[in-house]
Amino acid sequence: MADHGFPVTRSLVKVLATGIIKGRTETTTVNLEKGPSDVWWSRFKAHHPELTSRTADSLDRARVHGATPEAIEAFFKLYEALYVKHNLEDKPHLIYNCDETGFGDKPRSREKVLCKTGRKHVYQQQQMTREHITVHCCVNVARDSIQPFTIYPSYVQRNAYRLDGPPNTLYGIQEKGYMDSELFLKWLRHFIR
């Protein structure tokens, strides 16, 4: 499950174990209302040394399905060809990367999840929420950055968000607080300036 972005939590393992126990005909000492005890959990983990508990990092659904080895390799081949074609080897101030991140109203669960021992990162797909703010950032290889672009949902009062924001920050409003083609064009003009 962890390999597919849906790692199993301790509480889910206990629910699944309770379901298995309820399906058996023999008697049990497990309290079926509360589920397996902490002692059971300790024994389960001791019996499965290939599993460990970790805190999962968020990973949105598009990255889960789009970050295949083939897609990554194709990207870097294209990138390398453009890098050489435009003679950018000694011009780090001309190589920029931009990305956006979202902030929602639903706090991320800090409950530990199970994964194979030795795994460096464990990702958990993000749950979409009703409230959303997007921040679009841009930095070049020389470590210079331009002001962020913050996008609020349309219900936020116009100009109310600018009161305590960083100076020269670009702001936008979109119905649900996400980047769209119109706002990206606004940001691109800002970037060119």
Automatic annotation (TrEMBL):
Name by which UniProt lists this protein: HTH CENPB-type domain-containing protein
